[in-house]
Design a protein that fits this description.
A hairpin with a 3-residue loop joins β2 and β3. The chain has a single domain, classed as 2-Layer Sandwich (Ribosomal Protein S5, domain 2), CATH 3.30.230. The protein is globular and about 40 Å long. It starts with 8 loop residues before the first strand and ends in a 32-residue tail after the last helix. The chain has a 5-stranded mixed sheet with strand order 1-4-5-3-2, sandwiched between helices. By secondary structure, it is of the alpha/beta class. It is 35% helix and 18% strand. The longest helix has 25 residues. The protein has 3 helices and 5 strands; from the N terminus they run βαβββαβα.
């Protein structure tokens, strides 16, 4: 398309937003909540939602700019790694405006990219999830009538 191609394509229709909220997968984090779904389009598309709970107009615009910049970098990395294309909706949270775009980008790389590529994210801090065999559910149960009185 040349030098002046769009940085990203926006989702603008309310119908598409509602569809992604209903049918898309969810990836929550401390800075945003992302809903995504694979599409057959040629480009990834992005929609950003900022509610009034976040703050005034300046704060909401800052949150959008932070997410948009992080997505711009993340999208180019994702396109280099896979041929799959997605629609994304990012719902900003209250602390998003105070974050730097590099922090939001790191969150996208750590949480969102493994979900998109089909890999399981590594557990934080090396903490293992408990086995199903351990815990109060796996305690040996006595048959009824074997009470020690």
């Amino acid at each position: 398309m040349g030098e002046f191609s769009k940085r990203y394509y926006a989702i603008k229709n309310d119908r598409e937003f509602r569809y992604l909220f209903k049918k898309g997968e969810c990836c929550p984090s401390y800075g945003f909540v992302c809903y995504f779904r694979q599409t057959n389009r040629r480009r990834d598309r992005c929609g950003i939602v900022t509610g009034k709970k976040i703050g005034g107009a300046v704060t909401r615009n800052r949150a959008r700019r932070v997410i948009r910049e992080a997505f711009r970098i993340f999208d180019s990395e994702l396109c280099a790694e896979t041929d799959k294309r997605f629609d994304f909706i990012f719902v900003a949270r209250e602390g998003t405006a105070e974050l730097k775009s590099t922090k939001v980008l790191g969150t996208m790389r750590a949480k969102l990219k493994p979900m998109l590529l089909g890999k399981k994210p590594s557990s934080p801090g090396g903490v293992k999830k408990p086995d199903k065999k351990t815990g109060p559910e796996s305690a040996v149960r006595r048959p009824a009538g074997d009470d020690d009185q």
